[in-house]
Specification:
Blueprint lengths: L5 E5 L16 H12 L4 E3 L28 H6 L20 H22 L2 H13 L1 H17 L8 H4 L3 H10 L1 H27 L3 E6 L8 H5 L15 E5 L9 E6 L3 H6 L3 H13 L2 E4 L7 E6 L9 E4 L3 H11 L4 E3 L7 H9 L4 E4 L21 E4 L8 H7 L2 H11 L6 H11 L4 E5 H5 L28 H13 L18
Parallel strand pairs: 1-2, 1-12, 2-3, 3-6, 6-9, 10-11, 11-12
Antiparallel strand pairs: 4-5, 4-7, 7-8
Helix pairs in contact: 1-18, 3-8, 4-5, 5-8, 11-12, 15-16
Length: about 500
């Protein structure tokens, strides 16, 4: 697909200044979209919307299809009558860093109560919408709600569950389904609430000519409904159901032992034998929930680093061929297009570039990586083609102000040689470079728009503590900031394009 020339902002919903200790799909999200519209920004980029499995990372989730219940707006549920507004009085209104334990303790009981009330009190029309959601999404929803409840009952390592449940045996699952029907139905309702609110937000985006950029990780977590329900598609040992090999990246300049991510690797022969059905479903679902999709770790589709599961580091891995062209031909055949762009940062070999280019999939460029040495100049604006997505930094980078504070004199001089001496900060220097580049998409993290320092960093790769906690301050979506962005979008020819408005404008959550 040819991407339009557009600009936008990266802000994951958890970082919105919503009530309740975490950002959600409620009033703050609509306030942010109003800001984007006033700033004539045509793109809103989010991270994966799935429920985290390990820690708080949305890139490690219990499902490739389910949504994170913590994103549900209790305020919108109250507006639609599924929860008593008085129950919200105890929710915090500050924007302190996310305390996930507290948020789950305070929010989840209210969600379960709202689900019970929906099942007990919903009218025929609301129930029909819910029933249609369950029927249309049964292909992922049924496995997910069972997995989620079993995980709560038997622990997080599904291979240690009773054997017949761990092995996804039909008779055992049917017995569990009948015995736990009420709890399973509540989980279906929570997913209905989440995706109903997301659809409402997408409808509002369309009215404002804003397209949503989503994100999916190439690998899925072992502790997920996907691996549990489709273990034949993954490299697992049959005796104990544990991974034979796991994902990661080899040793490099940044790590002498590489990175052992630990995700189970696909059995690509088995995936191919199904006509890539699970991957087709995954990417179709992604395109139904967002307009454009970032494919994380794109090089894994060409070659991936295979690490024996017994190894504690990534040193003793090897490169193995991925599905390559065949997968993307199948996806294009099934979906009619490829609205994707590739996360192709780091050490990218010619075969990865060739795979990307053969399918006209745009790559990425990050300006923070462009000034270290001559070899990094490939990320500079004048070296780019339109078939790129340019960032000042991503969710994995320090903020631009934080990054600037770590630069030596030589790197600072290189930045200033290109940007000039920006009186409004290095962040605006990089924003202007990105906007004026040939790249069709220019996306900037909200932290850089606001000129925030390292205290606002969202994630530090290869660390397990302190990530995905940052939240946007209150009152920062100001008119003068929107006007500054709008002027830049206009002069760089990045004004939004009007898009079709969906027919269904009724939402009951």
């Amino acid at each position: 697909m040819t991407f339009p020339r557009a600009t936008g902002i990266l802000l994951h919903p958890i970082s919105l200044p919503s009530r309740g200790g975490i950002g959600d799909l409620g009033p703050s999200a609509y306030e942010f979209l109003d800001f984007l519209a006033k700033a004539t920004q045509g793109l809103w980029q989010v991270l994966p919307l799935n429920p985290p499995a390990k820690g708080n990372s949305p890139y490690s989730s219990t499902s490739a299809f389910a949504g994170d219940p913590l994103l549900i707006s209790l305020e919108r549920l109250a507006e639609h009558g599924w929860i008593d507004s008085g129950a919200l009085s105890g929710l915090t209104s500050d924007v302190a860093p996310i305390d996930y334990e507290r948020v789950r303790r305070d929010k989840l009981p209210l969600l379960w109560k709202a689900a019970e009330d929906f099942l007990a009190k919903s009218n025929e029309h609301a129930r029909q919408r819910f029933d249609r959601f369950c029927a249309d999404n049964a292909w992922w929803l049924e496995d997910y709600v069972m997995f989620d409840l079993l995980r709560q009952s038997h622990g997080e390592n599904w291979s240690h569950w009773p054997s017949e449940l761990a092995r996804h045996e039909g008779a055992a699952l049917e017995k569990f389904r009948q015995e736990s029907s009420a709890k399973l139905n509540s989980r279906r309702v929570v997913q209905f609430f989440l995706w109903e609110q997301w659809r409402a937000l997408r409808y509002y985006c369309a009215q404002k000519s804003i397209r949503v950029v989503g994100d999916i990780a190439i690998f899925v977590d072992y502790d997920s409904a996907d691996v549990w329900a489709h273990r034949e598609l993954f490299r697992l040992r049959e005796d104990d159901l544990q991974p034979e090999v796991v994902s990661g990246v080899p040793p490099d300049y940044f790590s002498a032992t590489g990175q052992r991510w630990g995700n189970p690797l696909y059995n690509w022969d088995a995936v191919r034998a199904t006509g890539y059905r699970w991957w087709v479903q995954r990417l179709r679902w992604a395109t139904q929930t967002c307009d454009f999709i970032r494919l994380d770790h794109f090089r894994g589709f060409a070659q991936f680093w295979e690490i024996p599961a017994s190894e504690s580091t990534a040193i003793r891995g090897r490169w193995v061929d991925g599905p390559g062209d065949e997968l993307f031909h199948k996806i294009k055949e099934e979906l009619g297009g490829l609205p994707f762009f590739a996360e192709d940062l780091g050490l990218i070999t010619p075969d990865v570039v060739a795979l990307r280019d053969r399918h006209d999939i745009p790559g990425m460029a990050v300006l923070q990586f462009a000034f270290g040495d001559v070899g990094a100049h490939a990320y500079l604006p004048h070296r780019l083609t339109p078939n790129r997505v340019i960032y000042s930094g991503t969710h994995d980078n320090d903020t631009t102000v934080g990054w600037w504070s770590t630069l030596g004199e030589k790197e600072r001089a290189a930045v200033c040689a290109l940007t000039g001496n920006c009186d409004d900060g290095p962040n605006w220097g990089l924003i202007r470079l990105a906007q004026s580049s040939p790249a069709n998409f220019s996306i900037v993290p909200i932290q850089d728009v606001l000129g925030l320092g390292s205290e606002a960093r969202l994630n530090t790769p290869s660390t397990s503590e302190g990530n995905y906690h940052w939240r946007c301050p209150l009152g920062v979506f100001k008119s003068e900031l929107a006007e500054k962005l709008a002027a830049l979008a206009e002069v760089t020819d990045r004004l939004p394009q009007i898009q079709p408005i969906p027919d269904d404008s009724e939402f009951i959550a």
